[in-house]
User: What shape does this take?
Amino acid sequence: MNIAEIAKLAGVSSAAVSRYFNNGYISEEKREAIRKVVEETGYRPSLQAQTLRTKKTRMVGVIVPKIASASIGRIVEGILSVLNETGYQTLLAVTQNDPKKELEYLSAFNDKQVDGVILAATIFSPEHKRLLKEFPVPVVIVGQQLGGHYCVFHDDYHAAYDLTRLILEKGRKKLGYIGAVQKDKAVGAERYRGFRDAVEEAGLESLAENFVIASFTVASGYEKAGELLKKSGKLDGILCATDTMAAGAMQYLREHQIRVPEEILVAGHGDSEMARITDPPLLTVHYSYEKSGELAARMLLDVLADRETAVKEMKLGYYIVE
Assistant: This one.
């Protein structure tokens, strides 16, 4: 089968069939006629021929820090829900939380000539910024804000600020914080800044020093909970940068006969499945991770289609889950 034969069977022009496969504009009547023929014949256009003709691969590179993460999984689901509907294939690269791997995969995708890249970044080193500035195809960043680049991110600062204020309003006045590495602007720096500003505005400036840094695992949350209590003394609330860290902290408290939430209230960020199955369920923050993936994919498709995007940066909201 070829395009001319598909066109004849569908009763449309070859140009209409070409536009159908390239997501161009055709009437719904013609689109449905072509779809039926394609479905009946099992026809698939040659990717190699399309690439030679259009100079487009119909592939998008997606770079993420890890797979075993509820938030990253939801972002990827959002990305795929859009790309799969528009005929793009996805090349997924996992960096295992190594920023150098992000640079390697960006270079590899450049060599492979993908049409665009969606990057779930962790940190932005000078080398990241240089490579992104010079990158020959569009890049949309998801989860972090970087001025001058297309990005979809969350309001991490106000989420952490409001969560801290809520816990203070519950009568907890001796708080501690388990955070992420500060080079991670969103999860590390912005969420800690929200905590710090909330306690300082409440006249509890010293609480900003009750701060330790963990990695993104339950084991690290467990370990750092012990370190935080040793450093800060008696606490009545622990806020964590992620639900995973918070689950580890709860496990530590339970094993050391410290009642949650009666003695220490524990809170996280992410509204993950883990937050719902802990005992008791975590106080947490919901971020629209899947929606951020969808919006990042649509933003990239708009750029690839030379359509005007309304904004270059998009910040999403949040809500607290009790």
